[in-house]
Amino acid sequence: MKVGFLLPVFRETPDDAFAAAQLGATAGVDGVFAYDHLWPMGSRERPALSPFPVLAAVSIRCPSLIVGPLVARVGLTSADHLIESFRSLELAAPGRVIAAIGTGDKLSAAENEAYGIPMQPVAERQAMVEHVANALSGTMPVWIGAGAPATNAIAQRVGATLNYWQKMPESPTGLWNWAGNPREDLEVQLDELAAAGSTWAIFAPTVDVSRLGKWRHSRGE
Q1: 219 falls in which pLDDT band (50, 70, 90)?
Q2: Is the pLDDT of residue 170 over 90?
Q3: Which domains does the chain have, with CATH numbers?
Q4: CA distances from 117 to 38, 48, 94, 113 (A)
Q5: How far is it, in rounded angstroms, from Cα 8 to Cα 14?
Q6: DSSP characters for the chain?
Q7: Of the candidates 88, 69, 85, which has an alpha carbon nearest to the alpha carbon of residue 77?
Q8: Residue 28: which region, alpha, beta or left (left: phi > 0; alpha: psi -120 to 50)?
Q9: Residue closest to 59 by CA, chosen among 29, 96, 23, 34
Q10: In this predicted model, what pLDDT tens digit does every residue of 32-90 receive, in sequence order?
Q11: 72-73 vs 66-69, strand pairing mode
């Protein structure tokens, strides 16, 4: 199981994200990721950096790291623009990009409304996810944010990995990974996720990166 963490991107500048990425590279984690939000959940007065420019800069500074958004939401821009954003990131980090995409939900709807971006019906957003996944599948790993059965079915059709936030699948039928908050017993948490079959464990920025790296080294994979 690979391990990674989300960069601190709810900042005015990317300095903290760059420092965290370098710490992760030194510790030996596999990858770093970035939220795709216009502000932190519940804190619309706070800033949020765009994930793709930050990840491109990180990929150049830390060439050992895999990078990707977690997850890039369809509907904030056109599906074709999102596809090209991933392809552009791939130019900066060949073979090290994960195309993690999602439909968004009611929790993020306020961000769309604040900027006058229509929140398309869920079926339309699911169709956009499938379009993006099909366009990128075969050129880079594709992850889809787990959610409604129809969204999960897209992952099966295109051979994508399902990404679960703060939960594990009850009856997994394909590749899946986990993302969420670290527990105090981080090593036990990692062992549990690995035993359950998660392909990645990705933690919020509060994770102790040194412990994450030590666990990764202890696995010898």
Answers
A1: confident
A2: no
A3: 2-219 (3.20.20.30)
A4: 12, 17, 32, 6
A5: 8
A6: -EEEEE---SSSSSHHHHHHHHHHHHHT-SEEEE---SS-TT-TTS----HHHHHHHHHHH-TT-EEEES-EETTSS-HHHHHHHHHHHHHHSTT-B-EEEE---TTTHHHHHHTT-----HHHHHHHHHHHHHHHBTTB-EEEE--SHHHHHHHHHHTPEEEEESS--SS--S-EEEEEPPPSSHHHHHHHHHHHT-SEEEE-TTS-HHHHHHHHHHHT-
A7: 85
A8: left
A9: 96
A10: 999 998 888 777 888 999 999 999 999 999 999 999 999 999 988 899 999 999 999 99
A11: unpaired
Q: What pLDDT digit, counting tens, does each position of 198-209 carry?
A: 999 999 999 999
Residue 99, phi then psi, degrees to nearest 5: -90, 85
Q: From residue 191, how far is each of 16, 145, 200 by CA, in Å? A: 29, 23, 12
**Structure tokens that stand for 159 in this block:** 């051979």
Single-letter amino acid code for the residue at 104: G
Whole-angstrom CA distances from 44 to 47, 91, 111, 118 are 8, 32, 8, 18
